[in-house]
Amino acid sequence: MQKDNSIFSKEDEVIKAAEALLKQGELNGENFLEKYKSLLKSYKKLLRQTKTVTRVSDNQQRKLNRILERLGRYVSFQLFKKITHEKGKVEIRTQRKKLTVFFSDLKDFSYTSSHMEGEALSEFLNSYLEIMTQIVIKWGGTLDKYMGDAIMVFFGDPEFTSDEDHALGCVKMAVEMREKMKGLRSKWYGLGYQDPLHFRMGIATGYCTVGNFGSSERMDYTIIGTPVNLASRLETAADADEVFISHETWSYVKDKVVCEPPVKLHLKGFHHQILAHKVLNLRDESGKDSRLFLLEDEEKGVNIKIDFSKVSKEDVLSIISEIDLPPEVLPETKSSQLT
To answer: Is residue 296 part of a domain?
Structure first.
């Protein structure tokens, strides 16, 4: 019979002896008392050992939780979930999947940052990335990386729903980011940043290679492929606060998103012209084109937004003609002359 080498082997022998004693019915006498004392002594020892093991286990669990919490700050939530729940060996492995890829950066940020101290730059950049990251998480995007002021996100991995959901979620994320930037510009201006910052975005959909890239010692979970390059080039081609989407992305969201007529772009790295669509706004819940007219010029104090699905051109002209301008603005002009 193989000997029991566990740390509780002696206690197991005492318990077995006590059970055998009970089966014999010898519940009286000195023999029972000795066995009982021995059992009690072993139980106390066992309890001390159990408390020690439990305490060590609790300390190890708390340490593990701290490590996992810190790890979660260096990778996206989806990737963190994949790492902590996936069984099997971590190895260099990739697959082909259709993804929607997003790129953004702050326009002319290199010039702005060159006039900022290191501490102020770090605080500014981290506050901007914090707000944008919360929007990424809200729409279920996988945050691939930060590259200075640039952000790279993709939809469709590790969690997949449908190509339509991924494309629409990405565009909605971009539109919300654009709206959020309006408030941020006012905040930054109030903090002393005299040059208003704008950003630009590019989105593309297509098959990418996704998975672990690197070596056996160090890996990155990321994506490569033509859609990645295309999204980056579309972002570069966009003007301030514009969102350019590829034609394939547009095909998935055209019933939910209002875009300008497509334009053909000559993009670096592509030998043929690329058809791109500029996102204006989202359609309402019924799918109706809200037909928004936007005119913004923060430097001149102009901010006009007209929804022509709710008002006619004639009504707009009538409203403008009834504006009672202060005399110091147009001292020689009457409101009736605006028509």
So the answer is: no
Q: Extract the tokens encoding 267.
A: 């993009």
Q: How buried is 31 (Cβ within 10 angstroms: 0-12 exposed, 13-18 middle, 19+ buried)?
A: exposed
pLDDT (tens digit, 9 = 90+) per residue, 137-195? 999 999 999 998 999 999 998 888 999 999 999 999 999 999 999 888 888 888 777 77
Is 301 among the domain residues? Answer: no
Q: Do both 113 and 60 map to the same domain?
A: no
- Separation of alpha carbons 67 and 57, rounded Å: 15
Alpha helix (H) ranges present in 191-221? none
Same domain, 21 and 81: no
Q: How far apart are CA 255 and CA 258, in angstroms?
A: 8
**Are 162 and 86 contained in the same domain?**
yes
- The alpha carbon of 149 is separated from its chain's Cα centroid by a whole number of angstroms, namely 15
Chain centre to alpha carbon of residue 56:
36
Going by C-beta distance under 8 Å and a sequence separation of 6 or more, which residues neighbour residue 266? 273, 274
Q: Provide DSSP, 87-101.
A: -S-----EEEEEEEE
Residue 312, both tokens: 């006619």
Let me know whether 207 and 95 are in one domain: yes
Burial class (CB in 10 A: 0-12, 13-18, 19+), 144: buried
Pair (25, 126) in one structural domain: no
266: amino acid identity, one letter: H
Domain that holds residue 44: 9-72
Amino acid at 128: Y
Task: Report the CATH number at residue 252.
Answer: 3.30.70.1230
